[in-house]
Write a structure and sequence with these properties.
mainly alpha; single chain; two-stranded antiparallel sheet
């Protein structure tokens, strides 16, 4: 496989102390993995302090569409499993939220709905996540954030395209 340009940048070992002028040599897998780990830990630690998990927040948000768009348990599990730690996590989360009284199942349609307590929890969590996002995004403009995500999205596409050829 040849590099996409005439000049390839050498890949250096991951170095958290590397200077800005050497960042182009750093492995994206290390830095994107580190960002994922640190941000996810920050979010999950804050949620744990109020006895909620990130997957519970995902489910509460998914059920936020109102009566007309209420999903079934199977739909929620199918939609959120790609984000989860294994194929059974989201089903367990639905059970936890039912037990907690934050979610109810419609007896006739078998659709999931937020209870008043579930909606109150979702709103509180949304406020918390907004505060946590502000910490993560401090000193980063929306334009810089969009540019970073576009680069990561392009890298994902490059790897997926290379795997299909």
């Amino acid at each position: 496989m040849k590099p996409p340009t005439d000049t390839a940048t050498d890949q250096a070992p991951a170095d958290p102390a590397v200077t800005d002028d050497m960042l182009a040599t750093q492995p994206v897998g290390y830095w994107s993995g580190l960002a994922h780990d640190v941000v996810t830990r920050h979010l999950r630690d804050a949620m744990a302090r109020i006895d909620v998990t990130q997957p519970q927040y995902w489910v509460l948000n998914r059920l936020n569409g109102g009566e007309s768009s209420a999903p079934s348990r199977e739909e929620v599990v199918s939609q959120l499993t790609p984000l989860a730690n294994g194929p059974h996590e989201i089903g367990r989360v639905v059970d936890q939220l039912l037990h907690r009284g934050w979610v109810r199942i419609d007896a006739d349609t078998r659709r999931l709905h937020l209870t008043d307590a579930g909606e109150a929890a979702r709103v509180r969590l949304r406020e918390l996540v907004t505060e946590l996002r502000a910490v993560v995004h401090a000193g980063i403009s929306d334009e810089e954030y969009v540019a970073a995500l576009k680069v990561l999205r392009r890298m994902v596409a490059n790897v997926e395209d290379a795997g299909n050829s």
